[in-house]
Q: What sequence folds into this?
């Protein structure tokens, strides 16, 4: 079912400082740096092979991401596997007994792609996400 | 500099249960199952697009990866970016002022690839790993 790594989210304290570090040390420029006020995050996004790498600075220290960063420090927070026909895949996963999050098991991300999220209680404690678009 | 997401290392509580979950829900079989006694890791490997997914059940709760599982629960432990000529990359990064871990800034993975690891003190608290092979 999984075709590639769709995206990886890495939490950082300062998205601009990380973008500068990336430029100086790896010679890489972000595709974009964007603030999503409604989601409380500032993202520096890089295309790395098949994968979008999102360095995310949480803007609200009380949010789940903000608390994760405060507790554990910078590091990978989340990743998503790329699939085709995500609505069908979400329906299949629900039919196999997985509790899915969001309406009809689907959510639209801030970046515009669609995701389907399996509740960790269905998946041995790990929040699997699949994505398309 | 980064040309792919080389591998993503997951930590889980029970490797065999996760392999069974992935088979039952995503229809995917592991490319390899093995135990690396010297590192205290019971692993399942999956090839997903250009990325290797390494799923590890820590065998020693006191190890670094065992403590990560105890503190974070199941999830992403680390991400490695693929590069060409990792030795040259490590030398360049050291010359730019990064403190590198391991002898000559290079570490041989038990899976056969070679990695270069930047000390998080040099990179805004984030552990960057570059990999080749």
A:
């Amino acid at each position: 079912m999984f075709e590639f790594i769709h995206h990886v989210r890495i939490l950082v304290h300062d998205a601009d400082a990380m973008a500068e570090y990336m430029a100086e040390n790896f010679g890489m420029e972000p595709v974009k740096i964007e603030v999503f006020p409604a989601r409380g995050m500032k993202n520096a996004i890089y295309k790395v092979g098949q994968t979008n790498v999102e360095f995310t600075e949480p803007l609200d220290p009380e949010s789940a991401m903000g608390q994760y960063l405060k507790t554990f420090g910078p590091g990978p927070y989340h990743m998503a596997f790329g699939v085709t026909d995500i609505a069908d895949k979400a329906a299949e996963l629900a039919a196999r007994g997985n509790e899915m999050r969001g309406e009809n098991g689907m959510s639209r991300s801030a970046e515009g792609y669609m995701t389907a999220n399996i509740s960790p209680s269905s998946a041995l404690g790990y929040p699997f996400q699949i994505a398309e678009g | 500099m980064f040309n792919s997401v080389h591998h993503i290392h997951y930590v889980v509580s029970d490797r065999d249960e996760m392999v069974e979950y992935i088979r039952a829900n995503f229809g995917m079989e592991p490319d390899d199952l093995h135990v690396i006694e010297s590192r205290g890791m019971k692993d399942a490997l999956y090839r997903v697009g250009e990325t290797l997914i390494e799923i590890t059940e820590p065998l020693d709760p006191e190890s670094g990866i065992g403590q990560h599982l105890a503190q974070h629960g199941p999830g992403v432990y680390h991400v490695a970016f693929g590069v060409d000529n990792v030795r040259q990359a490590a030398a360049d990064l050291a010359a730019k002022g990064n403190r590198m871990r391991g002898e000559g800034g290079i570490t041989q993975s038990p899976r056969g690839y070679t990695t270069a690891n930047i000390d998080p003190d040099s990179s805004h608290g984030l552990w960057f790993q570059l990999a080749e092979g």
Q: What stands out?
A: The mean pLDDT of chain A is 94. Residues 15-26 of chain A form the longest helix (12 residues). Chain A touches chain B through 43 residues (CB under 8 Å).
